[in-house]
Amino acid sequence: MKNAIDALAGRGGRIMIIANAAADSGVEIHVVDDGPGIAPSIKDRIFQAGVTTKSSGWGVGLSLTQRIIEDLHGGKVVVRSRRTGGTVFDIRLPPVGKKKKSRGVFRT
């Protein structure tokens, strides 16, 4: 959310949060914005510590987010660009008490 708000700062836009029950009783969360998107040059590294497009900050927010979702909760987080502009972060969390090490590709 914070990154989406920062990306839209001064230009307006929309941020949507969509949550759905997953087939295995887990949850899927999608954070969608219609901002400028993520530059292709950093998209593959966006979850690495120190990667940022901002003039200030350390670039650790998405790295920590990924570690919390994947290592602590056994989920999965991926980023993708929207065809109409903007960015989507897809988060998949397993059911409570069913922590599994996430493998494979996130399916939406």
Brief rundown of the structure:
The protein has 108 residues and is of the alpha+beta class.
- Average pLDDT value? 87
State the CATH topology: Heat Shock Protein 90
Largest sheet: 4 strands, antiparallel
Counted beta strands? 4
> How many angstroms does the end-to-end distance come to?
20 Å
| Alpha plus pi helix count | 3
Beta-strand percent range? 25-35%
What is the CATH superfamily label? Histidine kinase-like ATPase, C-terminal domain
Helix content: 10-25%
Taking all Cα atoms into account, the compactness measure Rg is: 14 Å
Series of H and E elements: HEEHHEE
The low-pLDDT segments are: none
Number of self-contained structural domains: 1
Draw up the topology in text.
Blueprint lengths: L1 H7 L6 E7 L5 E7 L6 H4 L17 H12 L3 E6 L5 E7 L15
Antiparallel strand pairs: 1-2, 2-4, 3-4
